[in-house]
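Subject: for your reference before the review

Hello V.,

The reviewers asked for a structural picture of the protein, and I figured it would be easier to keep everything in one thread rather than splitting it across files. Below is the amino acid sequence we used in the manuscript, unchanged from the supplementary table.
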Amino acid sequence: MTPSKKTIAVEKKILSNAEYSRRNAQRRRVSFIFLVAPALGWFLAFMLWPLLNMFYISTTSWNALNMPKKFIFLDNFVRIFHDPKMAIALHNTGTYLLVGILGVVPFAFMLGFFLSLRKPGYRILRTIFFSPSMLSVAALAMVFLGLYRPNGMLNTFLTSIGLSALTRVWLGNQATVLGALIAIDIWGGIGFYSVLFFAALVNLPDELYEAAMLDGAGYWTIMWKIAFPLMLDFIGLVVILQFLSILSGAAYMILLTGGGPGTATFTLGYYLYDQAFLSHRLGYSQALGVMLFFIGIVAIVLIRRITSRWSS
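And here is what came back from the structure prediction:
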């Protein structure tokens, strides 16, 4: 039975539509490749390749840039587990992480919530709170060096209010030096992350706050009972950023303390710097870098799971 002219026309139309869809999909794929290629090339050249190279160097004994590498497989990682300095670095880094996260994230969230209410003057306050992050690390180190000196601003203030017994050589005392460095991170971190929280909180519907106020809720209740649960995913992101910043950070140790006095500020980040640039054990330093990389990955996964579970 021969098909009618109408059936043939319909079949031709279907085939033409299919061909058009196929060609359109092909054009989309080509356009996507051209759009993504520059970013992918940048990622491969400046991110993935250095990361892979770090893994390779971690399996070598390389004691200077002008010295040959010697492949030793996993010896550097075995050494990490027998290194007595690792216990000190882990303890100091753990203390830094605990205080640095708990001292920044809750207060940054509260400050960001206050800014999100957009009271008069909030734009000026937002700029003031964010200003520490616009200063270089070296500039901040000099500011706090002047603050912590034996005759600096902090001791002068304590003496002027009759608390001279509390004065210390803050950066030269093993009992106070780590706390002094953590205070710098807290001072700068609260302002920086409060602006991030502000940017996220202003996207919450105003109707939620208005309905809560009609039910008699105050700002404190709204902040912790409404805004906080809705922001758990973003809070998890902030915790991750602060965790990674502290885990690999060593700038203030390098500029102010050199890991001392003694081993009081000897953290994992500083140990990596010490092995790479002071002791010139490049292979071992990259093994430490690999360890920090996997610690960061595990922390990211755990933090995301915890915040996702709480927010669900």
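For the response letter, the relevant points are probably these. The chain has two domains: 5-49, 70-311. The domain at 70-311 is CATH 1.10.3720.10 (MetI-like fold).

Happy to draft the paragraph if you're swamped.

O.
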